[in-house]
Amino acid sequence: MHILTVDSSTSYVVSGIVEIPEGRPQELVTRAQRCVDNPRGHMELLTPNIVECLAEAGLEPADLSAVIVGTGPGPFTGLRVGMATAQAFADALSIPVHGVESLAAIAVDVWDSVSVNDSMRTGELLILTDARRREWFGARYELSAPLLSTNATLRTLAGPFVSKPDDILEQQPGSSSIVVAKALAQHELLVDKAHRMLSLDGRPTPRSLVLAALLKAGGVSNASVRGLLTPSEPLRALYLRRPDAVEPKAQRVSSALDFTALARGIEGMVDTQGTTAGEGTTGSETVVRAEKMAGLEGTTGAEGVADVDKIQKTEGVQSAEGENIRTVELGQADAVAMESIERDLFAQDSPWSLDLIRSELSAMNTRYFGVKCGEELIGYLGLAKVGPDVDPEWEIHTVAIDRNYQGVGLSHLLMVAAMRAVDKVGGKVFLEVRTDNAAAVGLYRRYGFEPISVRKNYYQPSGADALVMMRPSYGYDEEAENSAGCVDDSLNAPTQPCDTNRDKNTMVILGVESSCDETGVGVVEMTRGETGEVSMRMISNRVASSMQEHARFGGVVPEIASRAHLEAMGPTMRQALRDLRADKVSRGVATVSNEKPDAVAATVGPGLAGALLVGAAAAKAYAAAWQVPFYGMNHLGGHVAVDLLDEAGEGLGGTTAQGEGLNNAIALLVSGGHTQILHIRGVGKPMEELGSTLDDAAGEAYDKVARLLGLGYPGGPVIDKLAMRGNAKAVAFPRAMMRQQDSRYDFSFSGVKTAVARYVEQAEREGKSIPVEDVCASFQEAVCDVLTAKAVRAAKDVGAGTMLLGGGVSANSRLRELLAQRCRSAGIVLHIPQFSLCTDNGVMIAALAAQVIAAGAHPSGLDTDTDPSLEVEIPVIQ
């Protein structure tokens, strides 16, 4: 059995594959490992390192039997990245995940080497790691050796604990040997303890994580190994410290406020649990994904076609230097050489990065063929299969020949290899090539490709046009294949089983949202029509909110939100995947027990730093385990994209990434963290911020006013419900930033918040009684008046005929009503999301990903980091 191991509790990013031979647990061996000292690199390094370890071990994710992860203690942010990644891999593959104390794994690693070298039989180890804030994490263990014997033991004597360094060293016995993490190696309190030090660089390793798990289960035995194949208790991070959150002091509520209306009860609060959408329809034809294609051959024949006669039998012969030229299938080991050729040939057309190339090489349905001269890579071709096995289509991504080898027709070797692989399965093949590259166009015509359309200004930054070419499906000629014999049979390795009833032009996209206090997982089915139109159907919208955990603090506590995301991600994901399977069953579509999407997307910014890390780390791990592309998405763009789903959860008819009405539209985003007016020039494309709040966001102002009025948290729904019973004209609260000399599109809500406070204070001084519902209605009217007036003004100024409303405050009844009235008067079409999609959710991220995929965006790398301050101009990280 093969076990994936992960730990991120120290400055090291640890991952690896450990093999336990059947019936011989004492012979366990580390097949591949990555232990990189990078205190801030857990998010960028962990998942790519896991993929590299699998490749080095010659394994696929499906070959894994279990996952073991260090559960700390450790610095919270890094610890959660490892645990979220491990949990997601296990979930995606339906295999058990087991947690083990990271400090125990450190003890095992050190004892494993010391006991072998010194023949020590038993001993005590004090393990110390950095807890920051001038504190240490620690634990004391007793171990017996040799660890691989059936009677070896690992016993916890004290801890794990967190405390001041002086206290730890005073309280722990002086007889224990000490192991410290690298971050503590030079600490002044440890200088006089040198004689007790066994290691100044303690950290878990893949081997020690497995050994610690086995020892905790009773020893290195077959019974303990079998235990790794059974489900364990849910993972629990060893934080050892409470979140830094203090409940605010009770605020005195003014005696001037009349709460009679509140006493009558407020019902109908916003539901944040999410729903499963109903059925929808599919479209007709898959369109080729936007990919680049550059020059191939430097020498051409009379008609601009490479001279194929020059290389009729090139493969298998020797070059001038005596090196064999051969065709091979490429893997991760070839990524660096591919990136070198890519950077040289495509400097003017946005060359792919090394990370993107690695991502392509690891994608489930993408294969790369290469031509090598000896061991030197001198050319390559990328081939991707889209759609189900029963009716596939193919895309050629890139054909590239090293400049030193161009002009001798090596691209023909690559085309022969690729077309043989295609014809064994069947299906149309699409590609794109610069219109000014006559040599390449001629080459493709020789292989049956014909032009079908032109994409203007496609290649950037050069601005060159792209010619889209298509090759019809051909049958497989077995006799010709046997006589040619230049491509190994391994090039036709079987692909992963697919849904045999899936329409060839559909794509299922899973979205993950964790930017604040909602853990959202959504599933959207995207259908692309023959002419490029995109429609979407919502399959699942599952949301777990930690709002109630924040209520007593009067606002979102980032650490509480991050902890809640780690606990909620797995259950929420499993609910969404069950919805995906149920959707297929309801439509009579064949299913498998472990359903998976075609792509995974996640919010990578903007948002709370710790919260973003949990969702994005999990999403990358799911994508890697399922071997599907990953897309890092902009949270704000998601709020815009979700407006394209109608009340039934189905896409608005005729909507495309460049669809009519969306090339010039205005989006008003209103939430607790953002209040912005955005100019949209195509969904999934960069948006321009025309205006934003200069102080409080609108949702934040609602919460602060609600606290002032004694209405609790969150304030928006309560104020909205009370306002329905109040008089919006009772108090003339100010409309900030509405004078002629003020910014046309910016907002300010701190003034109206202060005005409410002053009004209530004055009423109390004067002994007046004011209905709280009138205060709520008047405050809400002031906020909604400014929001809608400026949004409509922006639409008129840019000539936009479409308005999109998004963000949590878009659920506000008065905002919806007033904006609808003003858009109607101005002849503007208004799109507002259904209520379940107003708050943060995974559907909006999946919807945005669908649009950028349809527009031809490349996947993000698995090393994608989060950006809490991500600019709105960036819809997807690439």
UniProtKB/TrEMBL annotation:
Residue ranges of every copy of the N-acetyltransferase domain listed in the record: 323-474
A Pfam family annotated for this UniProt entry: TsaD
Enzyme Commission number: 2.3.1.234
Keyword entries, A-Z: Acyltransferase, Cytoplasm, Iron, Metal-binding, Transferase, tRNA processing
GO molecular function: iron ion binding; N-acetyltransferase activity; tRNA N(6)-L-threonylcarbamoyladenine synthase activity
GO biological process, one term: tRNA threonylcarbamoyladenosine modification
Principal subcellular localization: cytoplasm
Keyword tRNA processing in annotation: yes
Binding positions (Fe cation): H635, H639, D840
Subcellular location: Cytoplasm
Cofactor(s) required for function per UniProt: Fe(2+)
Catalytic activity: L-threonylcarbamoyladenylate + adenosine(37) in tRNA = N(6)-L-threonylcarbamoyladenosine(37) in tRNA + AMP + H(+)
Residues binding substrate, per UniProt: L669, V670, S671, G672, G673, D703, G716, D720, N812
Source organism superkingdom: Bacteria
GO cellular component: cytosol
Keyword Acyltransferase: yes
Cofactor note (record): Binds 1 Fe(2+) ion per subunit.
The family this protein is said to belong to: Belongs to the KAE1 / TsaD family.
Record-linked HAMAP family: TsaD
Job of this protein: Required for the formation of a threonylcarbamoyl group on adenosine at position 37 (t(6)A37) in tRNAs that read codons beginning with adenine. Is involved in the transfer of the threonylcarbamoyl moiety of threonylcarbamoyl-AMP (TC-AMP) to the N6 group of A37, together with TsaE and TsaB. TsaD likely plays a direct catalytic role in this reaction.
Protein name, entry field: tRNA N6-adenosine threonylcarbamoyltransferase
Natural source organism: Corynebacterium anserum
